[in-house]
Specification:
By secondary structure, the chain is mainly β. The protein has one helix at residues 118-121, and strands at residues 10-13, 36-39, 42-44, 49-56, 62-67, 72-77, 81-86, 89-94, 109-114, 124-132, 135-146, 149-158, 173-175, 181-185, 203-207, 229-232, 236-243, 248-254, 260-265, 301-303, 309-314, 327-331, 336-343, 346-353, 359-365, 371-376, 381-386.
């Protein structure tokens, strides 16, 4: 299919206001049924003009995407599938031989990424909800591909305890400059987990690329603590990126009703949930009377009302000079991409891009410097092109 044939207009929702919509556990999994209309192919934003190339429109519940370096891109579907694209076109093929997943609500096959040295070692990493006695467990695994077939599959770490339910499993994966692997794990909707170092939930974790626990993790010598924990007090982080130029890790996490957060993730820090928050319970009652406490980190930015933050990327590409250094955040309930302007570790401005595009699950920058996004409800894979 040539470029002209696939310049399909982006779809937007009719007759719905999204600016005040907060994110509830059920809403994170609802696909909109509102009628659709067309949005012009070219779009003006505050800083630059872009074109939106719709590459595919039949996704169901996509979660993550990654590139293999040979023209192929992989997109995960939460029910347990990995779709194979080649040069931006769906091949009609899927990865064969993946394990069964615990597909329940927000649990299932989640993120996917390749090892920084993929060209040499061929390792592909996934986060998924593994079926275990008692329910599901956020799990990090790796495998290789022989054609479209999985080989050398191995689970690297299985979080504990098992959880019988489909709420708040995370999960994103990033590597840093030393090839340490970081992954997020949600607190399962329980206010008892995130502050408890004795379980894996409501945390960011750090492991070696083969699953070993680094000896310099902050809680390896803390009695009864899960040794992979890097940070705690995180509610449900569904977005994470590594800023290679500054050696920083950023994450976004869902608040309850209000209080979504952008956080700078640093070793051993406590991000406060549920002791401090800018959100309230879904029924309108307070969760806590305080938004700050000594020893607990403040978010770099927070959203009230919630936009339902999800995947994220940092723009480093020269193809988008006016956005360079910005963080792009996928918004589920608010159905847009939030462009957050940064000055070092301060958020200084925000623009809502492509409002009404659908429930944006992930936004990523490809190895060749283009920005892609995937949506639920509208089922889109889109590519943002700088307008000439």
């Amino acid at each position: 299919m040539n470029l002209i044939k696939r310049l399909v207009p982006v779809l937007i929702f009719l007759g719905i206001s999204v600016t005040g919509k907060s994110c509830t556990p059920k809403e994170e999994d609802v696909t909109p049924e509102t009628p659709l209309t067309e949005l012009p192919f070219s779009t003006e934003t505050e800083k630059m003009s872009i074109k939106v190339d719709t590459l595919y429109s039949s996704l169901q519940n996509p979660w993550g995407m990654t590139w293999l370096g040979d023209g192929r891109m992989l997109i995960t579907e939460r029910k347990g599938e990995v779709l194979i694209f080649d040069k931006d076109e769906f091949t009609g093929q899927k990865v064969q031989g993946l394990p069964a997943v615990y597909a329940n609500g927000q649990a299932g096959l989640l993120d996917i990424t390749v090892h920084p040295n993929y060209a040499q070692n061929g390792w592909i990493y996934i986060s998924y909800a593994k079926p275990v006695p008692g329910g599901g467990a956020t799990t990090i695994a790796r495998f290789k591909l022989n054609g479209n077939a999985v080989t050398s599959f191995e689970d690297l770490i299985v979080t504990t305890p098992a959880w019988n339910g489909g709420t708040h499993y995370g999960s994103r994966i990033v590597f840093d400059k030393d090839n340490f692997l970081y992954f997020t794990n949600g607190e399962r909707g329980s206010q008892n987990n995130a502050q408890n170092l004795g379980n894996s939930h409501g945390k960011v974790h750090r492991i070696h690329d083969d699953g070993r626990i680094p000896t310099d993790n902050p809680f390896v010598n803390t009695a009864n603590a899960v040794p992979s924990i890097w940070t705690y007090g995180n509610r449900n982080p569904q977005g994470m990126i590594y800023d290679e130029a500054n050696n920083r890790i950023w994450s976004v996490e869902h608040g309850p009703r209000g209080g979504d957060e952008l956080n700078l993730i640093e070793k051993g820090n406590n991000y406060g949930w549920p002791v401090i928050t800018y959100g309230i319970n879904y029924n309108g009652t307070p969760i806590t009377e305080i938004t700050e406490k000594e020893g607990m980190e403040q978010p770099v930015k927070y959203w009230v009302p919630s936009i339902a933050t999800c995947g994220m990327t940092m723009v480093t590409s020269d193809k988008y000079p006016a956005w360079k250094g910005n963080i792009l955040v996928a918004a589920l309930a608010a159905t847009h991409i939030a462009r957050v302007e940064m000055d070092g570790t301060r958020a200084t401005g925000e623009e809502k891009l492509l409002q009404g595009i659908g429930r944006v699950r992930q936004v990523s920058q490809s190895p060749d410097g283009y920005i892609y996004a995937i949506t639920e409800g509208t089922g889109l894979l889109i590519k943002l092109l700088p307008a000439a």
